[in-house]
Amino acid sequence: MMPKTNPDVIEESGFDRAAGAIPMAVDLIRKDQCNDIKATGSAVELITINMVDAVIGPTCSSAAIHSGIITAYYNIPTYLWGMVASHQLADISKYTTTTRLTADSAELAEAFVAFMNKFGFDRFAFMYILRGQQKCKYIGDDLKGVIENTTLSDVSMTYSHQMENSSAEVISKTMEAAVKRARIFALCFANDVDRRNFFLVIHDMGLHTDEYLYVMLDTRGFGFGQRAKSKEFMDATGTVPLYIDQSEKPDGRDQDAMAAARMAVSIDFDATTSAGDISDFNKKVIERIRGWPFYCTECNSSDVAATYARYLHDAMYLYALALNRTITKNPLNIRNGRAIAQNSNVTFQGASGEVIFNKERQREAVFVVMGLNGTNSVVKFSTLKRNQTGNMTYYPESREKRIWDTRAGKKPRAVPLCGFDGNSCPEDPIRSPWVIGAVATGCVFAVITVFTSIYICWHKAGSESSRSLASSTMSVATKLTIETELESEFFTLYYLSGEPVVASKHHIRLNLDKNDHADMRKLRSLDHSNLNKFLGLCLDAEDCMYMSIWKYCSRRSLQDVFLRESITMDSFVMCSLMRDILQGLNYIHNSFLEHHGHLTSSNCLVDDRWQVKLSDYGLEGLRKADRLSHKKLLWRAPELLRDESVFGTQAGDVYSFAIICSEIMSRKPAYNLDSRPETEEEIVYLVKRGGNTLCRPSISNMAEFNPAFIHLVRDCWSERVRERPTVDQVMKLMKSIVPNSNVNLMDHVFRMMESYADSLEHEVQARVRELESEKKKSDLLLYRMMPKQIAEKLKMGSSVEPETFESVTVFFSDVVSFTTLASRCTPLQVVDLLNRLYTNFDQIIDNHDVYKVETIGDGYLCVSGLPHRNGDRHVIEIADMSLEFIASLQGFRIPHIPSETVQIRVGMHTGSVVAGVVGLTMPRYCLFGDTVNTASRMESNSKPNRIHMSSEAYLAIQKFPGYTTESRGDVIIKGKGVMETFWLLGKERLASFLILTFPDGFSRMYVLFPVCLRCESTNYRIPFDDYDKYVYFDSFIN
After folding, report:
1. CA distances from 247 to 191, 196, 300, 378, 633 (A)
2. What Rg value do the Cα atoms of the chain yield, rounded?
3. Which residues form the Guanylate cyclase domain (predicted)?
4. Do residues 217 and 112 make contact, with C-beta atoms less than 8 angstroms apart?
5. Can you name the CATH fold of 799-987?
6. Residue pLDDT, tens place only, 438-455
7. What one-character-per-residue DSSP string does 932-960 give?
8. What's the pLDDT at 234?
């Protein structure tokens, strides 16, 4: 049952655009090898002669609801397709013989609610246009039924309206009312024109901003597309984007429709199948309506198949499957609708996608959410389907934010921030009287602070000592040039007299007296290979009070070195770094400074020679005022954490050195916070608290270090200050623990580099040999796939232009009775047979100037004379190869059928061809021209183990003596008419002479008469004089 003339539904399920799917399904049924084929075919034939055993349709919900009751009464199976979406038909207690192939609108409603829940939308408006189908009415009714079920969701429908048509007046009036109640709009349209008109209207109304979301609900399986009305617009899937105008006179507003559609998504039934299958199916539907069983020559007012033609195909095919299962169980139930319906619960891959049924014999629906992405391409955002508990669930296709790409990643709100009337905006906190008062008070305080600071600075500028220091440092500052990209909160890179320097910022202002000046002069005089040079103090910094200037080390700090995971160190390098730190500390402890007080891995700098230099020493007055972060306190000794009045001690430096050693040994930051649950603040607290369980970095599992050295590090961070060794003691212990400690680090590095270079050279050579070996393998494989000359051009990236060859000989062969042989073999045995046969042939080809073009099943195609031109020899190359092919089959046996022999038919023809490379994926070197077709006809008209050749090949081979041929006479060749052809019988080689000279001074000449391939004669050897004396030479001559 399907409509024939109703204009409202003819494009969706009309007779002349869909009925062609029925004979296609019947063809598939007849080819189906599952269960009893004959019984199924008989049942189909009964249907075609109007003895109604089943009802396929109707295609509209209202008609299906009534007809379903009637067919249940008469116990006739019913298969529903088309626009049948009503949930009423899911009641199998009422519709006992009904099975539906399309999606249930109640499941579509559940999918929409799952979409709303996923993104936290709690309200929406529903608008639809009917146009006589009533599909959208049933979708709306089921949508209301689902949202009224409070167990599923708290989503509410705040507005619902049926639009009479898609005119601008009707849509604008509806939207004016809808926007007062919703920002999420669920839409259902009877046809694609109405949907496009809707988007044009909301574009004109300015309702296509990211504040609005339009969700189109449908069950056709078109997603974000529309049905193509002609082949002009159709893509491989039979659809075009919904914003395209397909009318005969387009309005030119596709861009406006697309701009509005960017704010929309579609939720539709997933009828996924390959694009090629859809295109081929639609083409056959149009063709088959004119053939059996309809023979409707006046049909097909359109060249595009109906929307639901694929569902009609699957309905017919499902009925046949169910009927086949039913009569297999009980042949008497051939017209038992309830039994057939129960047997319809099968799963198969149909034209409309994978068909699976639930317990109510309703198709299990999978829905897809589709829309436009940021580049205006139609994409699938997610899938909506039931999970294991039976609830409809949202499964994103990829990253979830992609669905909002057209909105700059911004998700719309179900309720505007200021409400639908714009009068519910939250109060602006800036306008609060308390905030205004606080801001005014702050401004007054800021003004007072600024004037006070100016007065203090002016007063201090009068100090002679400050004036003196400032004047000296001002001259330094004039030479500084900032390098802004290396600036941070604590450091800034400058250039002093062309040399890079680092300025450490101190956010404090102190009165510097004569003692401070003296200490700074002493600091500048400190000079040691493991100390970073102090250059002076700058007093006119812009963003801070003072800046201490230090030399710049190119590799920065140890902390930066640890962050670079690509750097590898052995134990010698690490011990060398530790030794440099100890030597720097030892110098400081024996100087006027007596201690560093602020030692961390961030102020252990590394120069370009991998030498550690301690920085940030001295300037105790400035550093006491600096507020240290918890991160900087990770290196501070516990006794100094407890007594903040003490800046530093020598024992505290030893403790800090031990923490740095743990960083060097593990190549991780202090305490490796990424692998610990504690924060920096918590670790500082635990260290400060002390106790029986001490909080220290982990240095276990350090197999590359001497256990004695690990104990030394633990002694250095001992909780008891008196138990910690001095720097001098640590240096002596390290010298006894670590061998070769006097070796220069750079010498060690150079030796490592030489060793690495040698091993790298050997490895490179080995890799090069492997590469060359693999290249030879790949080249060999490539040369087997196409001629060497062509392969070389492709490897060089050159294009291979098609080329005409005036004279070549083409060879075709075919295995005689191959189908019969194959039927007696398993598939694996067939493959083994062909592999052994073609391997035999391939070995023969290697001995001739012949190119193997391809094998198709048991067919074998070769050519000589291209791409390497060989004059006129191509015909004898093919002839010799053909003779050897047939000769080789005399000893060829099939392992699993040893009694059978293999015979081939051979055809050859000489003429011109065009050859060229075809395709990008798996390119092939192919032949084109009538010569190929003629050679194929020679083979198909040949006889077992005979070589059939055309007159052109016969004339070509006459240029070469020694070949035995025989005329076959005139033969009728398909597509060619009457042709005179010939048999190639064999080759009679000319006698050859062999002259041998022996030690006795005699020479002998032998005349060799080789055997004719098809003769019974033997080789004759005729010596010019006595033969018996040299009989032993026969074996050599053979």
Report:
1. 13, 12, 19, 22, 76
2. 46
3. 809-939
4. yes
5. Alpha-Beta Plaits (3.30.70)
6. 777 777 777 777 777 666
7. HHHHHHHHHT--TTEEEEEHHHHHHHTTS
8. 58
Q: Does 844 score more than 80 pLDDT?
A: yes
Give the integer Cα–Cα distance in Å for 930 and 72: 63
**CATH no. of 104-218+222-269+373-414:** 3.40.50.2300
In 163-255, beta strands by DSSP E: 184-188, 213-217, 225-227, 239-241
Under 8 Å between Cβ of 57 and 80: yes
Q: Point out which residues pair with 1004 in neighbouring strands.
A: 996
User: How confident is the model at residue 41, as a pLDDT?
Assistant: 37
Which residue ranges make up each domain of the chain?
A: 1-103+275-360, 104-218+222-269+373-414, 555-739, 744-785, 799-987, 992-1037
Prior bond to 500 cis, omega within 30?
no
- Euclidean distance between CA atoms 864 and 849, whole angstroms: 6
Which letter does DSSP use for residue 824 in this model?
T
Per-residue pLDDT, 277:
61
Model confidence over 795-828: pLDDT tens digits?
777 777 888 999 999 999 999 988 888 888 888 9
Domain 1-103+275-360 CATH (choose: 3.30.465.10, 3.40.50.10810, 3.40.50.1370, 3.40.50.2300): 3.40.50.2300
Across the range 407-430, mean pLDDT stands at 77
What are 353's strand-pairing partners?
A: 350
Specify the CATH number for 555-739; select among 1.10.510.10, 1.25.40.20, 1.25.40.10, 1.20.120.10.
Answer: 1.10.510.10
Q: What is the dihedral of CA 304, 307, 308, 314, to 10 degrees?
A: 60
Q: In what order do the strands lie in the sheet with 499-506?
A: 480-483, 491-496, 499-506, 546-551, 534-538
Structure tokens at 873: 């020899």
Q: Please determine whether the domains at 1-103+275-360 and 104-218+222-269+373-414 fall in the same fold group of CATH.
A: yes
For the ranges 116-125, 161-170, 522-531, 887-896, the lowest mean pLDDT is seen at 887-896
For 553, residues 6+ apart whose C-beta sits below 8 A from its C-beta are 532, 605, 606, 607, 608, 613, 615
Q: What's the rounded mean pLDDT across residues 667-682?
A: 87
Q: Which amino acid is at 414?
A: A
Distance in angstroms (rounded) separating the CA atoms of residues 237 and 225? 10
Q: Which residue has the higher pLDDT, 783 or 270?
A: 270
Residues 6+ apart with CB under 8 A from 993: 1005, 1006, 1007, 1008
Give the pLDDT band of residue 258 (cuts 50, 70, 90). very high
Band (pLDDT 50/70/90 cuts) for residue 689 is confident
Residue 199 reports pLDDT greater than 90: yes
Question: What does DSSP say about strands 55-56 and 78-80: parallel, antiparallel, or unpaired?
Answer: parallel
Q: What is the mean pLDDT of residues 293-307?
A: 67
Question: Which residue blocks in 179-274 are alpha helix, DSSP H?
Answer: 192-204, 254-261
Give Cα separations from 732 to 497, 579, 705 (angstroms).
41, 10, 17
Q: Are 937 and 947 in contact (CB under 8 A)?
A: no
pLDDT at 692: 80
CB 902 within 8 A of CB 837: yes
Contact 10, 22 (CB under 8 A): no
**Average pLDDT for the chain:** 79
